[in-house]
């Protein structure tokens, strides 16, 4: 594979650049950045040693993989600057939220190799989760290359049905906000009981991180892990009963469902 070009240098684009360099997938000079903000491109060049593209033509000439990392509303204008000929032989990775693969295929041709990706914000600390969906023209080698790029910032999961990326958005895309709210509430509970806020936030965040790692590394069902912590008549049982009285489980389910429905509306 030739270089990777980033059209857009926002937080997620920077996270991918940092992950790719940390994983040593490519040297800094093979990462090419283009952004409307010249100062942002200079910042990326100074910080990571990437190459600054003068224009879209130069980026396409240098790169076999192109990451579309602009805001969703900027995608139509960008696609008007591209053509099927310009995209021929390129792997196009879009992380523009809510933009279906069909939009890119209509602009670049049915034979374009397009990947729709939905990463989440923990990619900024190399613990992201990314849902991937591939257009029919994407080759096995391109699939593997895509997996390496997004695995460099966390976990990548492939989906054969593109509509499931709306569910990914509601779960993994919006999910960090739900978890941040939970961490804040955990810490507030400890502060209410007399703990200093700094220590409360540290313990709350560490508790969530540790519990999540147990789910992944043990492979046990979360319900089984919950039962391991819950002694009959103990403190955890009392806390869980309070959560159930507040419809905690149902409220979280409703949050994911509401985000999914909103994502479907925006995708249309």
How would you sum up this structure, described in words?
It is a single chain. With about 270 residues, the chain is α/β, with parallel strands linked by helices. The chain folds into 2 domains: about 5-165, 3-Layer(aba) Sandwich (Rossmann fold); about 175-265, ProC C-terminal domain-like fold (Orthogonal Bundle). Helices cover about 55% and strands about 15% of the residues. It has helices at about 10-20, 40-50, 55-60, 75-80, 85, 100-110, 140-150, 165-175, 175-190, 195-220, 220-230, 235-245, 250-265; strands spanning about 5, 30-35, 50, 65-70, 90-95, 115-120, 130-135, 155-160. Strand 2, helix 2 (about 40-50) and strand 3 (about 50) form a beta-alpha-beta unit. Helix 9 crosses helix 10. The longest helix has 22 residues, at about 195-220. It is elongated.
What does the secondary structure layout of this molecule look like, with pairings?
Elements: E1 3-7, H1 11-22, E2 31-34, H2 38-48, E3 51-52, H3 56-62, E4 63-68, H4 75-81, H5 84-87, E5 91-94, H6 101-108, E6 113-118, E7 128-134, H7 140-151, E8 154-158, H8 164-173, H9 175-192, H10 197-218, H11 222-229, H12 235-245, H13 248-267
Parallel strand pairs: 1-2, 1-4, 2-3, 4-5, 5-6, 7-8
Antiparallel strand pairs: 6-7
Keywords:
268 residues; alpha/beta; Rossmann fold; ProC C-terminal domain-like fold; 8-stranded mixed beta sheet; 13 helices; 8 strands; 56% helix
Summarize this, please?
This protein has 268 residues and is α/β, with parallel strands linked by helices.
Helix content: 55-70%
Q: Can you give the mean pLDDT?
A: 95
- What sequence of helices (H) and strands (E) makes up the elements? EHEHEHEHHEHEEHEHHHHHH
Please give the CATH class of the largest domain: Alpha Beta
Radius of gyration: 21 Å
Q: Into which percentage range does the β-strand content fall?
A: 5-15%
**Main β-sheet: number of strands, strand sense, barrel status?**
8 strands, mixed
Q: What is the count of helical runs?
A: 13
What is the third-level CATH name, the topology of the largest domain? Rossmann fold
Cα end-to-end separation: 34 Å
Low-confidence parts, pLDDT < 50 over ≥5 residues? none
Strand order of the largest sheet: 3-2-1-4-5-6-7-8
Q: What's the shape?
A: elongated
Identify the CATH architecture of the largest domain.
Answer: 3-Layer(aba) Sandwich
Task: Supply the helix-strand structural class.
Answer: alpha/beta
The count of domains is: 2
């Amino acid at each position: 594979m030739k270089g990777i070009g980033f059209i857009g240098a926002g937080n997620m684009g920077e996270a991918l650049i940092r992950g790719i360099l940390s994983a040593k997938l490519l040297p800094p000079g093979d990462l090419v950045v283009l952004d409307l903000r010249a100062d942002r491109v200079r910042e990326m060049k100074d910080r990571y040693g990437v190459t600054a593209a003068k224009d879209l033509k130069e980026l396409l000439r240098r790169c076999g993989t192109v990451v579309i990392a602009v805001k969703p509303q900027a995608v139509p204008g960008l696609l008007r600057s591209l053509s099927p000929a310009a995209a021929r032989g390129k792997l196009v990775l879009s992380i523009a939220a809510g933009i279906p693969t069909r939009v890119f295929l209509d602009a670049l041709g049915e034979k374009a190799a397009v990947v729709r990706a939905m990463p989440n914000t923990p990619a900024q600390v190399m613990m992201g989760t990314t849902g991937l969906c591939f257009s029919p023209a994407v080759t096995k080698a391109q699939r593997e290359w895509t997996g390496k790029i997004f695995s460099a910032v966390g976990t990548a999961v492939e989906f054969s049905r593109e509509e499931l990326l709306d569910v990914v958005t509601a779960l993994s895309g919006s999910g960090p906000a739900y978890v941040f709210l939970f961490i804040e509430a955990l810490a507030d509970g400890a502060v209410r009981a007399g703990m200093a806020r700094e220590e409360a936030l540290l313990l709350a965040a560490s508790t969530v991180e540790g519990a999540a790692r147990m789910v992944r590394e043990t492979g046990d069902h979360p319900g089984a892990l919950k039962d391991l912590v819950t002694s009959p008549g103990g403190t955890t049982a009392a806390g869980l009963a309070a959560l159930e009285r507040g419809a905690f489980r149902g409220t979280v389910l409703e949050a994911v469902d509401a985000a999914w429905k909103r994502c479907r509306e925006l995708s249309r």
